[in-house]
Amino acid sequence: DAGITQSPRHKVTETGTPVTLRCHQTENHRYMYWYRQDPGHGLRLIHYSYGVKDTDKGEVSDGYSVSRSKTEDFLLTLESATSSQTSVYFCAISEILGLDDTEAFFGQGTRLTVV
Amino acid sequence: EDQVTQSPEALRLQEGESSSLNCSYTVSGLRGLFWYRQDPGKGPEFLFTLYSAGEEKEKERLKATLTKKESFLHITAPKPEDSATYLCAVDRGSYIPTFGRGTSLIVHP
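Above: the input entities. Below: the structure tokens describing the complete assembly.
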């Protein structure tokens, strides 16, 4: 299994509070992603990173920010949590190892509830 | 905009009853199409990557195929342990997978 650890695994927070989710990898992969998964929507990309301090927005980036100061860590921050951000958040990693070896590997997910 | 549509949304099979899941896509310049399996409460688990039309890959009871417009995941003689949600994703060369909504498969003993 790819070495990806998400923390926390579960969190309940109040509306308006900041929240930071952490993704840690031991594979030294260049690409890291944050997705959210909601019923009826599937996996939607929030932000991604293609290197240290190199990040970009995905399709549902409003209300979220990210940082990547080290290869192994990718942080997702909800600046002021809202109930619409209640979801399961997945981190994924990938690397271009060859033409036939570029798939993404996922962490176990973080279940976030905003009350 | 890349589009990935999976059908059916849900599928119930009896053990041993073979079937296929569909993933149709609209993407300019497909680099790769991925299949994942996701069990409840867990992250998606990688199954296959397909790169060009006509390509096929197999793993145990699963076989994935690819055409220029769609991919099929064929499940032969499924067992209850094959019950899961199966996700399809496409990448057009940006190394950013775009996912479909998945097919929930239940195999009854």
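Note for the figure: Chain B touches chain A at residues 32, 34, 36, 41-46, 49, 51, 87, 89, 91, 95-102 (CB under 8 Å).
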